[in-house]
Design brief:
Chain A is an all-alpha fold. Chain A has 15 helices and two strands. Helix content of chain A is about 70%, strand content about 0%. By secondary structure, chain B is mostly helical. The chains are: A mainly alpha, B mainly alpha. Chains A and B meet through helix 2, helix 4, helix 5, helix 6 and helix 7 of A and helix 2 and helix 3 of B.
Amino acid sequence: MLSLENLTHTIDQALNRSFGPTTVLLVEMAMLSLFAIALFAVLGLVLVFMERKVSAYMQIRLGPNRVGYKGLAQTAADTLKLVIKEGLTPDSADKFLFNLAPFVVMIVAMLLLAPIAFAKGCQMWDMNIGVLYITAVSSVSVIGILMAGWASNNKYSLIGAMRSGAQIVSYELSAGLSIISMIVLTGSLQLSTIITSQQDGWWIFKGHIPAVISFVIFMIAVTAETNRAPFDMAEAESELTAGFHTEYSGMRFAFFFLAEYVNIFVVCAIAATIYFGGWMPFHIGHWEAFNHIMDFIPSVVWFTGKTFALIFLIMWFRWTFPRLRVDQLLNLEWKYLLPIGMFNLLLTTAIAILGWYF
Amino acid sequence: MSISSFIFYFLAAFILISGMLAVTTRKIFRAAIYLLFTMIGVAGLYFWLSYEFIAAVQIVVYVGGIVVLIIFSIFLTHHLSSEMERPNLFRMAFSLLAVLFAFTFCYFIILKNEFLPLGAVPLDLTVERIGAQMLSLTEHGYILPFEVVSMLLLSAMIGCIVIALKIPVESSQKNEN
């Protein structure tokens, strides 16, 4: 059967036969970085198109439908437009930091792709601290945003960056706590171990009540962390023009835009991995026949299916809920999500000790 | 030169250069960003040593925590156009002396210290092991420092809450009356 695992193994063996280990490492790293860049571009195009179509259907209109077949080439045309636009740098800006900020945001988004398991045996770096790595690295992206806001020398940018910083720093706590409560059940930070521990059922079913609570908190927190509506205070168009990227134009603006969508993809991939088994097909306990039938669907299809279903959920939030005020936003985190998250951690620990999960 | 040592020298140069820039730049926000680069470089060194857990903690605590805190306080107190004054000669001479002293001090300590070559045995650095060691009561356990630090953090948190607490206006008026 054709699988990505065989493909990667074949390439690795072929390279090893003809080159030394150092060259193989370099070539493989070059291939992976090409893959990451390609994935970045493709994800940007697909997710922007998806967002526009989803929002169109939710608002009972058609969305892009002229460029290419059923409007499929619309986002490619938009990107082309952004590439040929002039990238302005304001006169009184801190030019070095102003130009650096979009790259910081983009590189962080790319680094986050490293530990994600896209399919069975298709993972760039299966480190033993996978989940911790993701929470650690994603906390760096806020610095890119703060940098952009400060270096633009613009009141709107600065306020947007402050709001965004406060929001990301506080919601990171809830996202972290909900992940920790699932780590209590899986007993490992390594993504491949987390996935194989879901062979007899996904954690959202095996962990029942605490897993569902933690999933809900995680989805709310990551929506806030990626600065998306209803938590898009940082770039509230009606109040702050465009928040921290007000002064950016052309390709540098596109980098922020792309990084936002890649971040959405990454957090949804993490949610899919921890709660829904990543590439693991839908298995029920020891129903061998049923599990075997499910195994016929390729693992990459399972992974992308779950991830895109969660991305749809986040887009659904955006086009359904009105924007929160700053005080409501902070109240929600510190007075509701964080206490619930801590209580849930205790509950999960109790359930893990008593063995009340499947 | 093997790739491994190339990466080491690259990281070391990166850390040193950004550290130098952090103390010599006259723009406060840039200093914070250079400090951030230094921290990331140190995290890179930990990754190079394959101490992944410490590297991730370094990023969480220093990059995601402390540098963000520094940046926030800069946001609240400075303006983009403000530059720090150039220090006078007297101060520069004395800071140079201090740096030289620290450098020679460290240098002699490093010279005196014998570095034992690490055997071919790979270190067992799983997170389970670190957690168990952290909370163990046996001879090399860290439960006491762990608890002391957690008490310190708890008292700091309570102190912050007390400072930030909104005291109702009516009660203070009553006291005046």
